[in-house]
Amino acid sequence: MGILLKERVIEYAEEFSKPERFKRIFLFLLLGILVLIINEKWYLPFIHWYADTVHCHTPFGYSGISVMWHSLFVGLPLFCAFIIGVVTVPIGYKGLMHGQFPPKGMKVYKPTKILRGWKGKVKSIFHLLIPTSLILFSVWGYFQVDKMPHEVPKDYDYNVCKS
Known about the structure:
The protein is mostly helical and about 160 residues long. It folds into 2 domains: about 15-50; about 65-150. Helix content is about 60%, strand content about 5%. It has helices at about 20-50, 65-100, 120-145; strands at about 1-5, 10, 100, 115. Strands 1-2 form a two-stranded antiparallel ribbon. Strand 1 and strand 2 form a beta hairpin. Helix 2 (about 65-100) packs antiparallel against helix 3 (about 120-145). The longest helix is centred in the N-terminal third of the chain and has 35 residues, at about 20-50. The radius of gyration is 23 Å and the shape is elongated. The protein starts with a strand and ends in a 19-residue tail after the last helix.
């Protein structure tokens, strides 16, 4: 579909049909609710418990404090880069290969003009930069872990470890 404007045709990306759109939005909402329930019911209570008793643990023979700092500065950014990259990297790569954004064959939810030239490349590169920046943050974080406190506070109550 296109509109003629000053000798130039504006092209639009293919849209999802109404039933497809409804089904995808419904599934994403269900997935979001599931993630929210898991986060509130199991993940956050575990994180709170572990942070409160971090000095009591030695997972895989490493200090619990070191594991916490590595998880926070290295593991979490890498995990986020993986989760986000699974979606954004293929879109950005295809956009660069096809020289347009959204890439050929990609369906969209609302009328979206196809960007070509430098605008399409910038948008595709941006999709690649998101996980790349998280990976770079993780590399930076690896070198910051040694600067974080690893000692047990002198007034720490070890009775917490018994529960």
